[in-house]
């Protein structure tokens, strides 16, 4: 069966399934190819007749095995500025809209990932779900205004803003309400939302930040240093995609903390200052925000390291790398020894807080101080995989309900399904304009602990999170 949507650019033909129609590979901007490679997204051209929207568009260039692409029936290329829309019906019902920005360190990922399939969430909540592809890696984040012009910076963010503008203008054709748009993002997608808010973007009405490493917005100096490593790309004319990907692999990101060489940078145009500074020094768009992290974000990454890596010295070196040379290493390590079983757990917990929990708390604390509705959470539902805990990406399986797509993240049994239903209910309450739990009201304010026995608690881990106040070098 098919479904039709009548947009300003022409008619789209999607696929109608059980309870929802899906429109895949919908272009929201002109292909960023040729002379448009280093330019902000441009409007898509109109088309005549009915355009097919039953297949996903190409994903942004990234390191991914060709066999994985082929298995999923996907292509990869620079013509990647497309989005996917799941809707109960392309009618005039004016449903709330959720626009989701994927994670992946702004170097990997795509909106057509099975984990992000929006059918279940759209049907259950009677909402419209949109996922977005945007430029990644060097093509989305190169800071080289001297090479390509001042509007060539933060192209991934510019793509995302363009997509949000397209949604405002066109989502009514898919049964959505352009006046009730929630933007959500996970990991680097949440970092992007914080950056958009810091830049004053007003193209959405509510925001959900999931597992965002919000300290990972780069200074001009850090972004310029990455560009300097890519200087060879300027030799011999415009490089090909394979050359760009090869150059990306050679970027030196140092020890810990992971530097995030492709995250947004403070370019003075799209972003004037670090989101953690903007949040506390001036008013951002006065919208409700739901934000949080998982309890054990970093464990899934440290799980790849051998146990013998985690010596006393390694843990101390990590603490110093995170907290700075002037920190009291003994105090930091001692604070994280409590409640942790192994040195691996201590090391992982420090990175979890430095990169994810503490900056998220600081961001929402500042937003709440201006009387904006804020709802803070920590996901404590554990992965069935030994050693992962409540790990990074587990929120995706629970929010979208696609547990079977990655059962190692949150499980796929009846208990996991009940947990997913509970998380979805709270997210949908927020998307619909409601309040899913008690508002966060500053340091020690209510934090919803989402797990087998969910409850909102006060004064949750205040002392540990205070260790990371003002520890982020990009502040300057």
From TrEMBL:
It is an enzyme of class 3 (hydrolase). Keywords: Hydrolase. The keyword Hydrolase applies. InterPro entries: AB_hydrolase_fold (IPR029058), CarbesteraseB (IPR002018), Carboxylesterase_B_AS (IPR019826), Carboxylesterase_B_CS (IPR019819), Type-B_Carboxylest/Lipase (IPR050309). Gene3D superfamilies: alpha/beta hydrolase. Belongs to the type-B carboxylesterase/lipase family. Pfam families: COesterase. It comes from the Bacteria. This is Carboxylic ester hydrolase. Residues 5-438 form the Carboxylesterase type B domain. The keyword ATP-binding does not apply. Its EC number is 3.1.1.-. PROSITE patterns: CARBOXYLESTERASE_B_1 (PS00122), CARBOXYLESTERASE_B_2 (PS00941). GO terms for molecular function: hydrolase activity.
């Amino acid at each position: 069966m098919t479904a039709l949507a009548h947009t300003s650019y022409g008619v789209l033909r999607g696929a109608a399934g059980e309870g929802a129609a899906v429109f895949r590979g919908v272009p929201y901007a002109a292909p960023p190819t040729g002379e448009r490679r280093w330019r902000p997204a441009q409007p898509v051209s109109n088309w005549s007749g009915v355009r097919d929207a039953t297949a996903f568009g190409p994903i942004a260039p990234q390191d991914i095995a060709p066999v994985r692409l082929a298995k999923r029936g996907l292509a990869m290329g620079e013509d990647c500025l497309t989005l996917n829309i799941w809707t109960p019906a392309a009618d005039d019902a004016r449903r709330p809209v959720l626009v989701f920005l994927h994670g992946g360190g702004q170097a990997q990922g795509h909106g057509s990932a099975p984990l992000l399939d929006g059918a279940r969430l759209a049907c259950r909540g009677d909402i419209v779900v949109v996922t977005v592809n945007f430029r990644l890696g060097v093509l989305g984040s190169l800071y080289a205004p001297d090479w390509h012009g001042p509007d060539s910076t933060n192209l991934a963010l510019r793509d995302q803003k363009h997509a949000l503008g397209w949604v405002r203008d066109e989502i009514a054709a898919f049964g959505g309400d352009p006046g009730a748009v929630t933007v959500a993002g996970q990991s680097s997608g949440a970092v992007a939302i914080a950056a958009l808010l810091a830049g004053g973007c007003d193209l959405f009405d509510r925001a959900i930040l999931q597992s965002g490493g919000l300290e990972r917005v780069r200074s001009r100096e850090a972004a310029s240093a990455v560009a300097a490593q890519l200087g060879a790309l300027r030799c011999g004319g415009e490089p090909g995609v394979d050359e760009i990907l090869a150059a990306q692999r050679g970027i030196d990101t140092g020890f810990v903390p992971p530097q995030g060489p492709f995250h947004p940078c403070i370019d003075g145009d799209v972003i004037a200052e670090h989101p953690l500074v903007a949040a506390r020094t001036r008013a951002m768009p006065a919208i409700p925000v739901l934000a949080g992290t998982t309890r054990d974000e970093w464990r899934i990454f440290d799980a790849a390291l051998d146990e013998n890596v985690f010596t006393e010295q390694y843990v101390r070196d990590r603490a110093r790398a995170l907290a700075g040379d002037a920190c009291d290493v003994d105090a930091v390590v001692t604070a994280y020894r409590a409640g942790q079983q192994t040195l691996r757990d201590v090391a992982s917990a420090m990175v979890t807080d430095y990169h994810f929990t503490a900056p998220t708390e600081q961001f929402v604390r500042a937003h709440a101080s201006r009387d904006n509705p804020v709802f803070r959470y920590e996901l404590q539902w554990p992965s069935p995989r030994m050693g992962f805990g409540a790990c990074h990406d587990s929120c995706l399986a629970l929010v979208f309900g696609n547990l079977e797509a990655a059962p190692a993240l949150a499980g796929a049994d009846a208990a996991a399904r009940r947990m997913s239903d509970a998380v979805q209910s709270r997210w949908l309450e927020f998307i619909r304009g409601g309040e899913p739990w008690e508002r966060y009201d500053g340091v020690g304010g209510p934090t919803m602990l989402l797990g087998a026995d969910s409850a909102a608690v006060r004064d949750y881990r205040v002392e540990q999170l205070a260790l990371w106040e003002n520890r982020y070098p990009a502040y300057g």
